[in-house]
Amino acid sequence: xxxxxxxxxxxxxxxxxxxxxxxxxxxxxxxxxxxxxxxxxxxxxxxxxxxxxxxxxxxxxxxxxxxxxxxxxxxxxxxxxxxxxxxxxxxxxxxxxxxxxxxxxxxxxxxxxxxxxxxxxxxxxxxxxxxxxxxxxxxxxxxxxxxxxxxxxxxxxxxxxxxxxxxxxxxxxxxxxxxxxxxxxxxxxxxxxxxxxxxxxxxxxxxxxxxxxxxxxxxxxxxxxxxxxxxxxxxxxxxxxxxxxxxxxxxxxx
Length: 254
What we know:
It is built from 5 helices and 17 strands.
């Protein structure tokens, strides 16, 4: 299915949202609960599946929905369509502070591997599926990167990252990364996990037990502040039992 042609603008610096402009009858698919606002003419419908295969049967939709549950995402996707006579806009925001990354799938061989909670929205026609890391150790030992999402299509897709985004182009090079900092990468790259070094380094180094390894030719997108690191940094404040502990933030982190 050919993806819908959509225009967009990204607003904000550290806490961003993306505004999608839709022509009449154009549709954008998005994760449930990410919509910020929608203008007159936009209607939405919750569906089981991404809609990339209109002739997909019930079993196919159930399989796709089941695979989304594995990744920890909602069973359904929301389809926003412009049913008006002129251009209209709908906006989406990530669930935590960070950066929105626009990706034109046509420019990266029509395919992208994304961390399991990194997808935000995409043009109708984009196929979302689950892919398992070929290296079992990369998931079982690294704790992240075993279950990933695969985006396929020829349109625009948007993924979100925590903190600042770093783009790295590898040319038959090797890059070692904190396992939680990998947001997305081209399928041409080889993704593996290795121990950080000696036992002393693993215990006292503060970098975790394992590192993600990227090798080959292709682009990888990294995030400077994975959500798990943010939660870990704020966790001590949630244990306060004084005035701070009774705040909304304190109650949330307890």
